[in-house]
Amino acid sequence: MTRTVFAVAAFLTSTAGFAADWPQWMGPNRDDDWTETGIIDAFPEAGPQVLWRRPVSGGFAGPAVVGGRVFVTDYLKSSGDDKPAPTRRNELVGRERVHCLDAQTGDEIWKHEYACNYTISYPAGPRCTPTVEGGRVFTLGAMGDLYCLDAATGRVIWSKNLPQTYNAPVPLWGYAGHPLVYQNLLIVMAGGENSAVVALDKETGREVWKTLSTPEIGYSPPTLIEAGGVTQLLIFHGKSLNSLNPETGSLYWSEPLATAFSMAIMAPRKSGDFLFAGGHNGKSLGLKLDASQPTVTNAWQGSRTLGLAPVSGTPFVLDGVAYGIDGNGIFRAMRVATGERLWGTSKPVNGQDNEKRGPNEGATFVTRNGDRFFIFGENGDLVIARLSPEKYEEVSRTKLLDPVGVGLGRSVVWSHPAYADKCVFARNDQEIVCVSLAAK
Fold first, then answer.
1. Contact 339, 307 (CB under 8 A)
2. Which residues contact 116 (CB under 8 A, 6 or more apart)?
3. How does DSSP classify residue 431?
4. Which residues contact 43 (CB under 8 A, 6 or more apart)?
5. pLDDT at position 12
6. Averaged pLDDT, 392-403
7. Distance between CA atoms of residues 74 and 99, nearest Å
8. Helix, strand, coil: what percent of the chain each, to 5?
9. pLDDT at 356
10. Across the chain, which distance is largest between two alpha carbons, in Å?
11. Is the pTM value of this prediction over 0.90?
């Protein structure tokens, strides 16, 4: 076996996953739990060590890190007006790109790109973090271009354009539901009649099942939970929260949850026997999961003083309490079983300790490491904090990236970082950076 072939074979084996890998959105289990040890307790006064920076173009898609490689997507505009407006579809000519980088140096290993003209609002670039599994990398672009690539070489294994395949409208703010691998299936939000969600054979792209109809699929990813003695696939689109059998697509239950502008964005979160989801305009819902069968009963309905309704970012749930960003830019603690709000502050979002209002539709990305949390705010700051039902306690803060994107008239970074190899990998619309978080 030649050295090159051996290296490729070793990489294909490695993509089965190490504890230090971050192979998809929100990490190995899509729960934002980073299990590496030997991580710093506080940032050095001069800031953590930057290991490398590399230019990239626009995109909201976070990176994935597997087997010493970083996978990140972006959009290279050729022409068109990309100034964002909340409900105006921008028309751009350009190319979407998938980059594979060396995790230690940032050097490019391979690149796959394809022509892709945008007709979406906020057209910075792709939204979905690559999903890396079994030697393949699955990417979903903002206009619905779905690719399965060889993770070692970038070779196209199969591809589909979801709007064409399913006669589906492109969501106003682009395709944003991160693809999910379940057993031999790749599950994606597609759209169209009876194809809001589809399951494809991950090796060939052949359709296995499709189901659900909705005028707009929203922006929430397919999510798995264990409840009622079975594995349930949760689909939160713009009109309702649904539970399916992930093997067949058959419906277990459905509960109405209509968010404004179909802005269902967060992944539904489970805590014990309770489940909640929320979205734009203060809409949120708590459900009691049956312990013996896949059914639910209503536990609470969100209001101006009850519940949590994120517009950007999925809350972290620990010991019955959800910690995450509300639509008005306040970072909250909320009891999942009752919807009771325990405390709120805008400090993780923008560094200002305001209890009543933060940046409108502000974004935070919350990741646990041991007994504390790393919170990446839309202002480009990375915060180490302790979160409890009693209070928010900030331990340390550093500037990770400049907020060079534009969101609702302010400068923002709206991209979930990856945590792997004792580092944080984060991107904005100009660069991707690798910063060491290793304890000395």
1. yes
2. 75, 94, 95, 96, 141, 142, 143, 145
3. E
4. 382, 384, 396, 397, 398
5. 40
6. 97
7. 8
8. 5, 45, 50
9. 84
10. 65
11. yes
